[in-house]
Model the fold of this input.
Amino acid sequence: MKAERRASARPRTGARVAAVQALFQSEHTGESVETVADQFIRHRIGAPAGAIEFEEGGVPEAHIPLFQAILKQVAAHAEVADAAIMDCLQKGWTLDRLDPVLRALLRAATGELMQAHEPPARVVINEYLDIAAGFLDEEATRYANGMLDTLAHRLRPADFAPGA
Done:
């Protein structure tokens, strides 16, 4: 899986992969984001090979402060993040119509884009697009690309200003 190779080589990418997985798990199980984050830190991030496989939610390397910051931002501003995503959806679509993995990915990316100006919006787009390619089919990845681009332009317009 492409996301697995990228995550194992880059701890910040691993943090983003783990954040998407944690948001998916939180929604699926109904557990709080904080509870799931704690589970990931204790049992999934940095798990030795064979203890828990990547496909089962394990992340060999992840930058824990970034993982926590993404989840904290999404948990603290869930309604604002969801509203930003809904504003980018096609007319008549709701968040519930999105694939659950895509929904988790867009929430994580929106959480990052809602933070200060680091990393640059283009980095956020590229990182989450790579993650999308590892978890979603080609059509959903293209849709994610359009959504990420629209969200980034709306949430971080200064990053796209001439000379930025």
Remarks:
- Residues 11-29 form the longest helix (19 residues).
- Residues 1-8 have pLDDT under 50 and may be disordered.
